[in-house]
């Protein structure tokens, strides 16, 4: 198949890439008892790299024990954790693929079962609705972070990023979407603080801005990506309440800080109704690397690239279900649909 999606291209920040196909970060839950990466995980990512995926964003990797909220997910804050990822990174890079570690703090989307008995933390003490599918219990009532603790939160990400680069990763992606910790500050529905981290748009963006500033100064713009999800599916369309005002402040601000790699995610939702809409809103004020996709067909992906809306296309479930995703795209073969059974194995 002849298309822009499948030909090599060069990015000022990511360098030469095999094509415009990126594997989106997807929670899997196959780490060992010490939350380390395993040979099975290495083989899972290597299969996608050898098939031709140009950029892999790993599953979310927890930055601190208090930031966990899932069963058997990997952590990255010790030398042992870093060493466990080295084989994966080397094998993926040997196949000519770039790999970024997605760094993750769940915030209130958790339970004390996963945080060593401590209450999860968040922008305030508002409990997430519903049942945690990881332990079939209600989400815990979180503890509101003190103003003085924000630097500690930033340092968790810095330490984890240091370990990621120790392991050899090409970069890190900071998960600021999907209702997890940083998003719990960005989202006015959740953040009801009265200090400098709540209230106004500028204040609610403050933690994200401070974290990005620290990371860019430490590692440079070619090593740091963020993921945001201002519009996504959560039992219906879910968007930041003051969406336009947030984007009008946040996007120019992260540009000013020197961030150059942005991933707009919609999770499992219709791209054109969610992240595609956001991308069309911000493209005129964000001239740098921009990534999104998820639900697109090959034809739709090519059109988004040709029209300049995005620079790479992300797929998650399709790549999970099809280790030969790129080969199928090249020959025009239909993708295998994702099933619940596939969640239980590393294909």
- CA gyration radius, whole angstroms: 19 Å
Which sequence of SSEs, written as H and E, runs from N to C?
EEEHEHEEEEEHEHHEEEHEHEHEHH
Low-confidence residue ranges: none
Which sheet architecture does the biggest sheet show?
A: 8 strands, parallel, barrel
Total DSSP helices: 10
Task: Work out the strand percent.
Answer: 15-25%
Number of strands: 16
CATH-scheme architecture: Alpha-Beta Barrel
- Could you state the CATH homologous superfamily? Aldolase class I
Structurally, how many domains make up the residues? 1
The CATH class is: Alpha Beta
What is the terminal-to-terminal distance? Answer: 25 Å
Under CATH, the topology can be stated as TIM Barrel
Describe what this molecule looks like in 3D:
- With 347 residues, the protein is α/β, with parallel strands linked by helices.
- The protein is built from ten helices and 16 strands.
- Strands 3-4-5-10-11-14-15-16 form an eight-stranded parallel β-barrel, surrounded by five helices. A two-stranded antiparallel sheet has the order 1-2.
- β3, α1 and β4 form a beta-alpha-beta unit.
- The longest helix is centred in the middle third of the chain and has 19 residues.
- It is globular and about 55 Å long.
Helices, strands, pairings?
Layout: E1 9-11, E2 15-17, E3 21-23, H1 39-51, E4 55-62, H2 79-94, E5 98-104, E6 121-122, E7 131-132, E8 137-138, E9 143-144, H3 150-167, E10 171-175, H4 181-186, H5 201-219, E11 224-228, E12 231-233, E13 237-239, H6 243-257, E14 261-264, H7 275-282, E15 289-293, H8 298-306, E16 312-315, H9 317-321, H10 325-331
Helix pairs in contact: 1-2, 2-3, 3-5, 5-6
């Amino acid at each position: 198949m002849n298309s822009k999606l499948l030909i090599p291209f060069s990015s000022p920040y990511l360098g030469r890439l095999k094509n415009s196909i990126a594997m989106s970060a997807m929670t899997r839950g196959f780490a060992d008892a010490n939350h380390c990466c395993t040979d099975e995980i290495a083989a899972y990512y290597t299969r996608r790299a050898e098939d031709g995926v140009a950029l892999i964003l790993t599953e979310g990797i927890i930055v601190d024990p208090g930031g966990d909220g899932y069963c058997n997910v990997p952590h990255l804050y010790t030398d042992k954790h870093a060493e466990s990822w080295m084989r994966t990174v080397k094998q993926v890079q040997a196949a000519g693929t770039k790999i970024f570690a997605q760094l993750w703090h769940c915030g209130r989307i958790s339970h004390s079962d996963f945080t060593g008995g401590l209450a999860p933390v968040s922008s305030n003490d508002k409990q997430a609705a519903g049942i945690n599918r990881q332990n079939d219990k209600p989400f815990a009532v979180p503890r509101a972070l003190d103003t003085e603790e924000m630097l500690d939160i930033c340092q968790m990400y810095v330490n984890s990023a240091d370990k990621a680069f120790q392991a050899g990763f090409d970069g890190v992606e900071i998960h600021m979407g999907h209702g997890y910790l940083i998003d719990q500050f960005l989202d006015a529905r959740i953040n009801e603080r009265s200090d400098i981290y709540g209230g106004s748009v500028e204040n609610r963006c403050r933690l994200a801005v401070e974290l990005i500033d620290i990371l860019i100064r430490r590692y440079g713009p070619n090593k740091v990506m963020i993921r945001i999800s201002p519009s996504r599916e959560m039992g219906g369309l879910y968007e930041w309440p003051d969406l336009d005002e947030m984007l009008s402040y946040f996007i120019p601000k992260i540009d000013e800080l020197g961030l150059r790699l942005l991933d707009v995610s919609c999770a499992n939702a219709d791209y054109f109704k969610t992240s595609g809409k956001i991308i069309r809103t911000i493209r005129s004020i964000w001239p740098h690397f921009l990534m999104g996709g998820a639900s697109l067909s090959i034809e739709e992906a090519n059109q988004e690239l040709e029209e300049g809306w995005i620079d790479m296309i992300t797929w998650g479930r399709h790549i999970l279900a099809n280790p030969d995703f790129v080969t199928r795209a090249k020959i025009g073969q239909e993708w295998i649909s994702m099933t619940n059974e596939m969640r239980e194995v590393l294909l």
